[in-house]
Design a protein that fits this description.
mainly alpha, 4 helices
């Protein structure tokens, strides 16, 4: 596939010099660089994803007042301690 890229002048000159030094075409040099970057990204864990525990609690919906009281009485520290 043939495409057009806009590359910073300094980066282009450095890549052209290094590819020549390595005996590679500029195209091959960029292909290898992109392949290396993609491989590194594939090795990294996916950030930002997590799973939440599933609750089996059943019951009727809480009123806004009851919900507010429960939130105010909640202890994050106690909840986190229970996960350990």
């Amino acid at each position: 596939m043939q495409t057009t890229l806009r590359i910073n002048d300094t980066t282009y000159r450095r890549a052209k010099a290094k590819s020549s030094e390595l005996g590679l075409s500029l195209t091959r040099f960029f292909e290898e660089a992109v392949e290396e970057r993609l491989a590194k990204l594939d090795e990294q864990p996916i950030r930002g994803k997590f799973s939440l525990p599933v609750s089996s609690v059943a019951g009727s919906r809480l009123s806004q007042e009851a919900y507010t009281r429960r939130i105010q009485g909640a202890s994050v520290e106690d909840d986190l301690a229970g996960l350990k």
